[in-house]
Design brief:
By secondary structure, the protein is α/β, with parallel strands linked by helices. The chain has a five-stranded parallel beta sheet with strand order 3-2-1-7-20, with helices on one face. The chain has a five-stranded parallel beta sheet with strand order 8-19-9-12-15, sandwiched between helices. Strands 4-5-6 form a three-stranded antiparallel beta sheet. The radius of gyration is 27 Å and the shape is globular.
Length: about 750
Amino acid sequence: MTMEPIQLAIVGGGPTCTYVLERLAALTREQDAAVPLDIVIYDLSGEYGSGQVHSPRQTTTSYLNRIVGQVAFAADESVVDAGPLLAEGDRPTLLEWCRTKFEETGDPVFDMVAEDWPKRYVHGLALQDQFERYVAMLRAAEGITVTLRQAEVCDLEERGDRFAVLTTDQEPPFEADYVLMLTGHSSNKPETDPLQVAWARFAERSQARLIPSAYPLEQSLTPDRTGPGSSVGCLGMGLTGIDVVLYLTEGRGGVFERDADGTLGYRPSGAEPDSIVVFSRNGLFTFARPYNEKERDIAALEYKGAFLTTAAVAELRRTVGRRNLISGVEQLQLDFEKHLFPLIVLEMALIYYSTLYGPEFRELAIAAARPAYEKFLADAEAFPDHREACELLTGPIDALSLETAAAVDWVISGAAPLDGSAGAGLPVRAATTSFLTVVHGAEEAGRLLELAHRPHEFASAVATARSPWRHAASAARHRFSWAETISPIPRDSYRTPEEYREVFLDFLDTDIRWAAQGNLSNPAKAAADAAWRDLRGVVIEAVDFGGLLASSHRDFLDVYTGHHNRLCQGASCEAMEKITALIQAGHVDISAGPEARIECDENAGKFRISGPLTGATRLVDSLVDARVHRFDAERDVMPIYPNLLGRGIVRKWTNPGLDEPDFVPGGLDLTPEFHPVRADGSVEPRITFLGPPSEGVMYHQIGALRPNKDHHVIRDILKWINAFMPHGDTAGRHHQNEGKHA
C-alpha cells in the first residue's frame, strides 16, 4: 500500500539541523519498509549546516568556544536509545574531520590535536560538509525528498491537520504535518530596551553611532563606523566582546608576534580604530578556559560530585521545598542561593584542596564535612542566609586544610620530617608531594623531594624554586575563597585608571598561567571546571520546569548564570594572550573598571564611558552592545515568535510567585517533549522547539554535540523524530493508521 509522505518542516538550517538530518539518515536506512518523507528546510542566511553564527565565510579571528576534541556531528555508542548508528566513516568527529582535511590539503589550520581550539569558521566548514553528506543520504533513500529554502519563516498558519509555513518572500506555503523550530540565537528589538532606546535617540541627534547587536561582525562593525580615527566602546566582556576586539584588530590586518622571550606582542596595521574601550558591570573578561586534561579519558576523569548530587537536590526538595502548581504540575521549589549555592561552594572547596593535597586529603575531608552536610540537607532553612550556610558546610574542610598546610609548611621549611603525619592522620609525605607537584610540576617536585632527607638543603631548594604558574611557595597562602574566586581584583588594590590597568594585567597573566596548567592540576581551575561544568546536570535538575522559586529563578539567571559563564565558559589561553597583548599595546582600554556607566555627552556628541571606581572617563564615537540577549518571544527581532504569540499557538512560560511577583523569563511554555503549550492551555504536539526558545522553562539548552557523551541534544531530537517515525518495524504505521495529531 502506498503511504502518503509525512510532511516535515525544519525552520533553521544550523548545527542542530545537521544533527537532526544525521538521525533521520541513520533511521531511514534501517527501516524494514521505506518511510516516505517530504522534508523542507528553511534558513534565511542560506548557510545550511552551519547557520550564520558558524559560517565558513565569517572572520578568521573568532574561536569556537570548545576544544576540537569535544565536538561531534552524529550520535555514537554513548547515546542511550539512539537507534541505529551510521558507519564510522559517515560520522567523523570534528577532530577526525580536521585530521582528514589536513591529510588532504596540508593546510595547517586543520592540523589539530584533541586539546586545540579551532577557529569558528573551521567548525562551520565541517558542519556544512556533514550537512551535505546527510542530505545526500536522505535523497538517495526511497520516497524521501529534501528541499532547501533560503527564506525567512515569519508565521505558522493552522490549516486543518497541518501548519502552513509562511515566509516573507510570499512564496506558496509548504503545509507540514510536523514543524521543528531550530531558529538558534537571536536578538531582541532595540526599541524594547529602554537603555538602547535612549542611546538610539542620542545617536539620531548627534554624530555618535549605536550598534545594537554585534553579529554578524562583518556587517555591524564596518570601517565607516569603526575605522581609523574613531574610538569604539564595547559593552560586554564575554565571548562576544572578545570576538569584537579581535575582529577590530587582528581582523583589520594586525599581526600578533612572539618576542624572543616568548611574550606575545601586537603589530598594528593602521586599519584599527584608534581605541577600543571595553567595559562591563563587573569589569572582567571571562576567565581563561583551562587546558582540558580530562580529554585523555573523559569517562574516568570527568568529576563525580560528593555533595552536589541529584540525590541531594531531591532530599532538599523533600525537606525544605515549597509546593507550587506550575503548568498544572505540582513542584517542590527551592531557593538557589539558600539551598543549592552552598553545596556548590562546598564542592568547590573540596575539589580545590583535594587537588592541592591529594586523594588522601579528599577522603578525610569528605568524612569531616559529612555531619554538617547531612544537617544542612535535613533543614537548610535553619540557616539565616547562604553565607552562614557556606561557612558551616566548608568549615570542617577549611580546618583540615589549615592543619594540613601547617604540616606541609613545617616540612618544606626543614623543621619537620617528610614521613610524619598531621593531627588528622593525613600522611604528610602524600600532602607535601601533592603540594609541591601543584606548585612546581611533577619533574621539579621530584627533584626537590630527592633532597628531603637533608632538611636544610631541602628547605633552601624549595625557597629558591619559582613556580611557573605563579603559585605561592607557602601552603598557608593557598586558601579557597568564593569571594576572591569571582572577584579576583581587590577593590582596594587600585585608585586610578593606571593602577587598575596594572592589576588587571597582573590578574590576566596569572589566570592564563593557571589555565595552561590544566583543569586537573590547577586547584582553582579544577574547582571551577568540575563544579560548574561537570556537575552542570545537577544544576539543570534543580532549575528546570519551575524547580526554583520565582524570585530565586530571576536571581539565578541574572547573577549566577553570569558567574557560571565567567568561571567555565571562557575563551582559550591563546585568545586571552591576544587580549593581553592588545591592552599592553594600548589598543584596548579596560580602565573604566567595574560598574562602568554610559552617558550621552550632548556637548561632545559622543558616548561617555565613566568608571566610578577607577576615575576613568572615555569618549567613544561608536557604542557596540556586545551582550548576549536573553531569548524573549515577545521582543524577538524575528517576526515568527510575536506572530505565534498573537495566534495563541504558543505562550510565554511563567514561574508563578508564592507570596511574590511571578517571573516571566521570556522563553516559551514547553512540555518535556519540547511541544508548546497554547494560550488556552492545550499542548500542540505538531510543533517542537529546540534551543533558545526553551530557555526559561529549561536551563542550558544551547550547545554543540559532544562525542562519547550521552548528549541531551540527540535525545531531544529523538523525541521529535519518534513522534512520526518510531524505531523498528512499526515505522510508518503511526502516520498510516493512527490519528496524526493525537
